[in-house]
Batch of 2 targets.
Target 1
Amino acid sequence: MSPRTSLATVCLSGALDDKLVAAAAAGFDGVEIFEPDLVASPMPPGQVRLRCADLGLSVDLYQPFRDLDSTDPARFAANLRRADAKFAVMEALGADTVLMCSSVAADAVEDPDRLAEQLHTVAERAHDRGLRIAYEALAWGAHVATWDASWEVVRRADHPALGLCLDSFHILSRGSDPAPIADVPGEKLFFLQLADAPHLSMDVLQWSRHHRLFPGQGAFDLPAFMRAVLAAGYAGPWSLEVFNDVFRQADPERAAVDAHRSLLTLAEATTGGTEPPPRLAGHAFVEVTGDESTGGVLAALGFARTGVHRTKPVERWEQGGARVLVNRSGAETAIAAVAVESADPPASARRAVRLAAPALPRERGPAEADLAAVTAPDGTALFFCRTGAPDDWSGDFVATGERAAGIGVTGIDHVGLAQPFDHFDEAALFYRSVLGLEPVTSAEFAAPFGLVRSRALADPGRDVRLALSVSLLRRGQWAPGVSEPQYVALAVEDVVAAARAARAADAPLLGIPDNYYADLAARLELPAAEIAAYREFGVLREETPEGAYLQVCTEVLGGRLFVALVQRIGDHDLFGWTDAPVRMAAHRRRRLARAAVRT
Amino acid sequence: MSPRTSLATVCLSGALDDKLVAAAAAGFDGVEIFEPDLVASPMPPGQVRLRCADLGLSVDLYQPFRDLDSTDPARFAANLRRADAKFAVMEALGADTVLMCSSVAADAVEDPDRLAEQLHTVAERAHDRGLRIAYEALAWGAHVATWDASWEVVRRADHPALGLCLDSFHILSRGSDPAPIADVPGEKLFFLQLADAPHLSMDVLQWSRHHRLFPGQGAFDLPAFMRAVLAAGYAGPWSLEVFNDVFRQADPERAAVDAHRSLLTLAEATTGGTEPPPRLAGHAFVEVTGDESTGGVLAALGFARTGVHRTKPVERWEQGGARVLVNRSGAETAIAAVAVESADPPASARRAVRLAAPALPRERGPAEADLAAVTAPDGTALFFCRTGAPDDWSGDFVATGERAAGIGVTGIDHVGLAQPFDHFDEAALFYRSVLGLEPVTSAEFAAPFGLVRSRALADPGRDVRLALSVSLLRRGQWAPGVSEPQYVALAVEDVVAAARAARAADAPLLGIPDNYYADLAARLELPAAEIAAYREFGVLREETPEGAYLQVCTEVLGGRLFVALVQRIGDHDLFGWTDAPVRMAAHRRRRLARAAVRT
C-alpha cells in the first residue's frame, strides 16, 4: 500500500522555499505550512500556492491556530477576528484545512457546552469559506489534553466543518491506548500527524518541542496506532510533524529523504508490506581502505591473504569465518563497505533502492560478479551477497593458496560505525529499514572528551550486528588528534588466548592502565590469575547479571580504524560501552605518544 | 574572605592529567578525584599524589563510592571488600575523605537502624586507616534522598569517621530549605559540593547529570545556601561538582578559569565582599572595526564624525548620547570593544583582573588617556571610562567640528554579542561578575537554521544592557553564508520617524516580508496606518502585556555586524527575540541576493 505522504515544514531547517524544494525532491505528495515559516517568507500566500503546484505538492494543512476559545467575550471576539484573517491567508494558500490546538491559555473555556459552542461558531465561519477545522488536543492543553476529550468536544459541537486532528505524539506520549480511535467515524478524522519519540522522563512540552523523531527512530508503537486510525476509516495523508533540534539545523534535503523513508517503512510495518526484507545470514565481509601495514596487522591477528582481486588493488584476508578485504587505494584506513549475506541479494538491493538508498555504481570488470550494493547515509557501501552461490563475489579473487595460522577468530561479531552528528537517527533508521534489523540496545555515556550516544541494531538471530555511535555536542575539539574511529569486532572463543597469540605475532594491541584492573578486582569476584591475564593483554570486561563482553583492541590504524577481538559470555546484546571511556583515553594516549615520537 | 577552593575532576574535559593541570593553572587549592578519571589514567594512585603535590593541589576527596548498604549479607560483605580496595587506593592517593552516596540499588537498606549499623561498620574500617566517609543523599536515592534524611542516618550511626557531604544541587533541586543546615554541628559537615543549575522540568537524575552549572550561571540561591553552611561552622573547601555536557567537551583550561571565577563571585555574594563593583552609568562607546562604508552607514543613520584619533586610524562618530568609534583597521566589520561608564574605572579594572579577566595591553601614545581595559571570553575588549573627567578618553581625539544632523538617536540601548557555543555560560558569568550586572531575561527559540538561546544582562538602572546569544547545536552549517552577527542597538523615541529619516539618507535598512504585517494585524489591535508605516520601513514589533519593543535593523555590514534602531514602550526588559527568526531569515535573503549580484 502507498499512502499519500505529507510533511510539516516545521520538520526541516531553512527558509520556506528550501523546505518546499526538499519535500518535493524527497517524494512527498503534500506539505503542512507552519505559520512562522510563512510569516518569515517573502512569498505572499498566493505565490506559495503556485510554488507548491509547480513542485507537485498539495497544501494539506495550515498550522497552527492557537487559543481560540475564551471565557472573556471580548477576547473571543478578537480571536474570531484573528481566525478570519487566517482563513483569508488559507484561501490564498489553497489550504482547505487548519489545525486548531486546544487552548493552553489562562482564559481557556472549561465548560464543555460553551467550548463546543465557540468551536461551532468558528466552524460555521470556516464553512462559509469552504474551509475545515481539524481540532487537536495538546498533551498540555488547559482543559482538553487527551484525544478522547477533543473527540467529545467535536462530537458535542457537531458541525460538518469541524473534525479531529490526531497527533501520535500527544496520544502515545501520555500512554493512551489508541485502539478506541477505531470507533471514531472516519469522516470526522480530518487530519493525521505522525511523530515518534524516545521515552524520556521530562516535561511533555519540552519533550514534544525538541525530541520528536521520525517514525521508526523512537520508541512508540506507531504501527499499532496506524492500524487503529485506518480501522476508523481515515483516508487522508500520513503527515509528519516532527520538532527535533538536530533536524532543525541539518541539511533539509537529506532530512526530507529520511522523513519519507520513515513513512514508507511505517506503511510496510502497518500492513505487512509486499516485499519483506530477505533473511540475513551473517557478515559476508568488511572492506577497509588501507595500505601494506593494514595487511601486516591482519597477519599478526592470524589472518591469511587468501586472494588477490583480478583487476583491482584489493586483497582478501581470511580467518575462520571472518573475511576482510583490504582495498590498497592509499586512502585513510577506514571501513569502506559492509557486506551481508542475504537469502536474495537482488531483492535486498531492490528494497533498499525503494527505500531511497542510492544504488552504488560499480566499476565492473568483464569477469566480475554483479554485486548488489547501495550507499548508507554515513557513506559506507552496503553489499548484499550470497557467498557460495554460483557466480558469487569470491570468484573475483585469484586464490593465493596462503593458509591462516589463526588465533581463534571464528567470524565477524559486529561492525562499529561512528556517525556524523547530523545523521545519527537517519543512519539508525536506514540500517533498520533497509536491512530489516531491530534496535537491540542503546546507551549514552560520558567519554573523556564529551558525551557519546550509541545504538546497536541486529537481526533476530544476531547474525548481523551493527553498533552506531555519535558524539553529542562536539567531543573535545580543544584536544587535537581526537577522532572517532570505526572498528571491526572479530569473534573469538577465548580472548586471552587470542590476544596472547596476537601479541606473540607483534600485533599492536592497546595497553590498558593498571588502575582499570584494580577497579575490576574490587568490583568483580574473579580469580587473581584471570585478572592478571587481563592486565597482561589489555582485556576489557563489561559485566552484567546476564553475561559478559570481553574485548582486546588494537591501536587506531592509519587514522580511523581499530580492530577488536571479542569474546561473549551469555548476553548477546552487550557491546562493551561501559569500557569505552577507558578505551578512548588509551587510544588518545597512544596517538599522542606516536605524535611525540614523530616530532 | 577567601575560602579554600576545590574542583571535582568530573567538571572538566580530557584525561586526568589535563584536568589537574587546568585546575592548578586556574588557581584552585585542591581537587576531588572522580573515580572513572583515575581508572582510565595510566598514572598509579601514588603518582597522582606526587603530580598533585607538584602542581600545588591537595587531594580533597575521592569520589564516588556507590551502593554500600545491602539487605543481602553476602552482598554487603562484597561491598565492604570493595570499600577496602578503594581505601587502599585513597591511601596511595593521599585522599583522606571518600564521598559515599546513598544507595539507589534494589537491595538498599530501608530500616534506619540497620542502615546506620552498616555505615558504622564501614566507618570503623575507614577509621582504622585514618580515613573519613562523607555520606551524601542523592536526590534519587532509594530510601535516603534528602539532606536531613542523610543527617539522621549519620547521627544514628554516630561514628567520628562518618559525616555529611552536602551537595547544593541535591538540596536545592528538591526545593529544600537550606536554613536548618545551620543547626548541624560543623564538625559533622565533612565536605561541601557546589553546583548551580537552571530550573528545568525534567527527571532530576538527568537534570543533575547533564545540566549543572557553575555558581552564578543558574537559578539557585547559592549565597543563601552558603550562609547556612557557614553558620553551621563548616570550614572545609568550597568544591565544585558540576556535570555539564558542554563543559565536558570544552577546553579544560578555560573551563577551570570560569569555575574558579564562579567561586570568587559566590564568596563575594555570600559575605558582601570587600570591593563591590563600582556603579555603572551607561555605555561610554562601542568600538567597531570597519572601513569607509561603515562610516557611511553611520552618517546615513544620522551620526556625525566628531573626532579623529591623534595617532590611530580611529574615528569618533556621535549622535545624541550615542558614541561609536570606527577603527579602520580593515578587518571584518565587528564589535571590537564595549566601553562602560564607571564611577571608578581603575577599581573596575582591578576587580576584573581579580576575577581572572586578562588585562588588555594597550599601545598608548604619549598624550593618550590610560584606558582601564580587560578582554572578555568572547574576545571583546571591555573598557572602563569616566567620560567628562579630566584626562578622559575623548582627549585622544581631535575634534572635527562636524555636527550630527540626527535622526533621533538618544544613546546606546544595548549591545548584542553572539557567543561561541563552548563559552556561552562562561561569558554570561563573566559579564555578570566583572560588571556587576544581573540576568534580566532569557529565551530559547527556533530560528530558521536551528535553535538559539539568548540571555540578557543589565545593571539595576538599565543603563548598561548586554544581550548574549548562542546557537545550540550548530545552526545550519548546510546553509552557506549563515553567520551569527553582533549588533549595536541604538535608542530612539520614534522608530518610524527615525527609520524614515534614515531611509531618506539611503541607510541600508532591512526589508521585512508583508506576511509579517498580515500576521501582526491579525494578532494586535493597531490602527491600519500604523501597521502601514511599520510595513513601509520594516519595523518589527514584539508585544507583551507590559509593553513593546520596536526595532528597525540594517543589513549585515561587512560580515558580522548590524545596527538596530530601538524604541521601547513600557517594558524595559524586552529584546525583540520573538521577532529574531524573521530578522534572521531576512538577513539571509539579503546575503544571498548580494552574493547573486556579485556572481
Target 2
Amino acid sequence: MGSGKILVAQGGGPTAVINQSLVGVALEARRFRDVTRVYGALHGVRGIVDEEFVDLTRETSHNLELVAATPSSALGSTRDKPDDKYCAEIFNVLRAHEIEHFFYIGGNDSSDTVRIVSEQARAAGYPLRAIHIPKTIDNDLVGSDHTPGFPSAARFVAQAFAGANLDNAALPGVYVGVVMGRHAGFLTAAAALGKKFPDDGPHLVYLPERTFSIEAFLADVKAIHERHGRCVVAVSEGIHDASGKPIATLLAREVEKDAHGNVQLSGTGALADLLCDEIKAKLGIKRVRGDTFGYLQRSFIGCVSDVDQREAREVGEKAVQYAFWGDRDGSVAIRRTGFYSADYALLPLSDVAGKTRTMEDEFIAPSGTDVTDAFRLYLRPLLGSGMPDAFRLRCARVAKILKP
Amino acid sequence: MGSGKILVAQGGGPTAVINQSLVGVALEARRFRDVTRVYGALHGVRGIVDEEFVDLTRETSHNLELVAATPSSALGSTRDKPDDKYCAEIFNVLRAHEIEHFFYIGGNDSSDTVRIVSEQARAAGYPLRAIHIPKTIDNDLVGSDHTPGFPSAARFVAQAFAGANLDNAALPGVYVGVVMGRHAGFLTAAAALGKKFPDDGPHLVYLPERTFSIEAFLADVKAIHERHGRCVVAVSEGIHDASGKPIATLLAREVEKDAHGNVQLSGTGALADLLCDEIKAKLGIKRVRGDTFGYLQRSFIGCVSDVDQREAREVGEKAVQYAFWGDRDGSVAIRRTGFYSADYALLPLSDVAGKTRTMEDEFIAPSGTDVTDAFRLYLRPLLGSGMPDAFRLRCARVAKILKP
C-alpha cells in the first residue's frame, strides 16, 4: 500500500441516491487502516484535471449521512468524456497527489471514462486501482440486474402516472407524459406500475426499443379514446422512426449535442407538444394535454425508493472492498438473488464500458405498447416500501327519474 | 326537513385532497338523523343535469377513507359553467329527486355556479340549501386564509425546486420551471420554500402579479448567472406583458379557451421553451433547460400535506354542519387563528363567487422577483410535516500541488 489516499468523483446525470454511493465509499474507506485520506473531486473528471479536491475525511459522519439522503451529486458532476490528452492530465494530478485508488460513480459514459483511465494508467506503469460504481436512471448498464438511481426515478414516474391517470379520469381527454430515456425504455415502462384497475392509464406505452410511427400512434390513441372516453399515454423521449431518427428531431428546433455526441432530448416540451398537436389536428379530440417530466423525475426530493437507497449505499461500500481486498479494476454490478434480495459482483470494465442495455423482449408486450407481467414482477420490488395506492368509489348508481 | 336527500359534486381542476372534502360531507351527513341518502353527482353539474348519481350511503366507511386519501376528484369533474337554462335543468332534476341540500366542491368558477344555482332556487321558490366547499391549487379565493388543495400543490412545487436546485448545482446552467397559476402567483411563489442556503435556487421568481418584460428577465438571469455560475428560475404560466397579454400567447400556437373564456395555459411546454430559447439566443449560455410542471403538480400521488388533508376534510364536515344547523347558503372559508391553527367560517356566496384573490403586496419582495419572509411564514406551516431537507458537504478544500 502506498500513500493511502483515495479519490472519489461523480459523473453524468444526478440521481436521487447517488450520494449514498459517495458516502458508502467515504465511510467504508475509513474502516481500512491503510487509508489516510478520502478526497472528493468536484464536478467529476473535470475537477481532477483542475485539482479541485475536497477532503471528505474532514467531514463528520453525521453530516455525511444527511448528505447521503440528499438527491443529486453533492460533489458536482460533469459531462466531460476524457480522451488520451485529458487522461494524461488526470495522471499528472493523481501522481502529484499520490492517489492510487480512484472510484468513479456514473453511468455508461462514466464507466467508459474509468476504462480509459484504467488502461492509460496500466500503460503508463502507474499503480492505479480504478473502480466504476454504477449509477443511472436509464437502467442501461449491461451486466447488472438494475442500476442505482433507476428505482427511485421509476418510483417517481409510476407515482406521476398514477396521479395523471386519476386527473384524466376526473376530466377526461388525452394525456401524454414524456419520460426520460434515450435508448432504453425502462423508465418509461415504469409508468405501467402506476396502473391499478383494468381501465386505468397509462393505456399506451411507447418505448425506444420499438419503431415509432405517428400513424400507428394516432390509430392506437383513437381506439383507446373510443373505448374508454379518455387515454393516458407514456412516451419515451427517445422514440424514433424506422431509420432511427428521433421523433423529437422531426421538429424544426435546432438540435443540441453534448460532448458524447448525444442529441439533447430533455429540458424541452417540444416532443409532447408535437404529439398533442397531431392528436388535436388528426383526431379532432378537444382536451389534449402533454407534460414533459424533465428533470423532476431524476432530482425530485422526497420520492425515493428505500431499496434503491440501500443498494446505492452498498455498491459504494463494495467498491472499496473490491479495491482493497481484490486484485483488479472493474465495475460493480447488482445481481438479483431472491424475490427480493440482491448481491454484488465486480465485472471487467470492458464488459460494461460504452455498452448499452435496452429492455429485453420478454419485458415488452407483443403489441409493443405495453409491458409484460415479467416486467411488473421485475420492477415492483425495486420501487420500495410505502408506495401510495389509489382507491375508487364502488357505490351503486341511482336510478334516473326524468330520463330513465 | 324534507326528503333527507343531499347531493354532493366536485367541479374544476382536481387536487390532491379534494376527496377529503367529499368524504367529509358523506360521513358527516350520515350523523344527521334527518339525512336518508347522500348522493354524489358524476362530473359535477354536468352529472346533475344528466341525472348521473351514485348513492354514497351505500359505500363502506372504510372504502370512503381510502378514497379520501386518493388524489383527484373521485366523482369526476367538469369545466361546465351553468347559465340560466342549465340551472333550470338542474332544478328539474333536484326537484324530481327531492334533493334539498346541494354541496359543490370547487374553486372560483364553482363558487359562482353555486351562487347562480342558489339564486335561481330562491327565485323559483325551491327550498334548496346550497353550500360551496372551497378547493383550488391556485389559492385565489377571496375571504380565505388559503384554500384546500393549495398546500399540497405548494409542497410539490417546493420539493420540485429543492431537487431542481440540487440538480442545477451539480450540472450548472440555467433551469426554468413553469408553474400553474393563471392570475395568482401563490403556487409559483411556493418555489421559494425549496430554497435553504443563501446561494440556492430558485434565484428568481416571476409572478403574474407583476408585469413581465423579456428584457428585464434576460438582464436578471444574466446577473444571477454571472454571480453564481448558474441560475434557477420559477415562472408562473400566467406571466403577462404590460397590456395584460399572456407571454405564453406571444407564441404562434393557436390559443385554446375553456367554457369560462380562460385561455388554456397548461398542458404545453411552449412557455418554458420560449424563455429557454431567448436565454440561449440572447445570453449565449449553453446549458439551458426548461420544465413545465403541468399536471404533475396537482395530481401527483404521494406528495400531500397532512395539514391540507385535515383541513380539506374539515371544510366538508363544516359544510354539512352549516347546512343543517345554519339558516343560509354560503361558502366555507378557512381562517388562521394561530401559528399554526385554523378555524372555519361561512361567507355569503356573493363575497366569494367570481372574485379572484391575487398575492398580497406584502408577500412580494420589492424587486418583484422574490417573495418576502412574510410569505415564508404564511406558507411554511401549510406544507405539513415531514418535509424533506437538503444537506451539502462542508469539508475543506485540498491544496493544489500542480497549479497552486
